[in-house]
Amino acid sequence: MNIEILSAGAFESALVQLEADERFVSEAGAMYRASANIEIDVTTRGSRRSGGLLGGVKRMLSGDSFFMSTYRAEGGRSGEVGLAPTQQGELCVVEVDGSTSWICAGGSYLGSAPGIDIDTQFQGFKGFLGGESLFFLEASGTGPLLVSAFGRVVENEVEGSVTVDSGHVVAYESTLQYRVTKAGKSWFQSWLAGEGLVMTFTGQGRLLTQSHNPGEFGKTLGPKLPSRS
Questions:
Q1: Do 135 and 58 contact (CB within 8 A), yes or no?
Q2: N or C: which terminus of the chain carries fewer CB neighbours within 10 A?
Q3: 2: alpha, beta or left, given left = phi > 0 and alpha = psi -120 to 50?
Q4: Which of 84, 89, 80 is closest to 11 using CA atoms?
Q5: If we measure between CA atoms, which residue out of 33, 39, 29 comes closest to residue 16?
């Protein structure tokens, strides 16, 4: 299996090259092209732990797709699948090595190898207050994990603590913990700075962030759109 990132920049996509009988899983609707010998199976279950119908509902609450698609190269030949996220931005391939799991926030999950189990992790109200979702997706096991960002994606090596503005988290290793706090010393200072709430990560591990906030973009764009008739 090989994953190639195409069109570097704001409109990146991924080309997943599969050997004969190899499989790859993605959120439904991510595929934009595939070889003629690629078999596609759409289901609510994306892995052994994804929980069928209930798993699909929890993925919706995390901002991801209810259905998941599994692609397999059949006919004894290799094949390829082109995948792209809904929002424009960069993609990142994370090699999950089994030593720790990755937590995907804000609908950033795009696809993964079949050796990776996808489950939902309840964040409670701190996820909601942090501008994210009540549920995040947890990716564990081994193999490549494909995530998407709105804008540029940056990998941060956390040793101690780092603060991220809400809505800018893509994914992080489960060795990190976070808490939601105010940006300034007081709520008034946070409001004046236009920041509000931030997420402070502590521990040691990798953290992927995105340069743009899709929620704030929607708030800016929404009032400029014509009203529905």
A1: yes
A2: C
A3: beta
A4: 89
A5: 33
CB-facing half-sphere around the CA of 191: CA atoms within 13 A: 3
What 3-state DSSP class applies to 155?
A: strand
Looking at the chain, the whole-number percentage of residues with pLDDT higher than 70 is 78
Q: What is the DSSP pairing of strand 197-210 with strand 169-173?
A: antiparallel
Bridge partners for 198 per DSSP? 165, 181
Lookup result for tokens 């078999």: 39
* Structural domains of the chain, ranges and CATH numbers in brackets: 2-224 (3.60.160.10)
User: Structure pTM?
Assistant: 0.83
Alpha carbon distance 165, 142 (integer Å): 30
Find tokens 């591990």 and name the residue. Answer: 205
Q: Is a pLDDT exceeding 80 seen at residue 223?
A: yes
- Location of structure tokens 């913990």: 177
Q: Which amino acid is at 146?
A: L
Closest alpha carbon to 208 in 131, 136, 155: 155
pLDDT score of 225 more than 80: yes
H or E, element range at 121: strand 116-122
Distance of CA 130 to the CA centre of its chain: 16
For the stretch 176-207, pLDDT in tens is: 999 988 766 665 555 655 556 788 999 999 99
Measured between alpha carbons, how far is 208 from 204 in angstroms, rounded to an integer?
A: 13
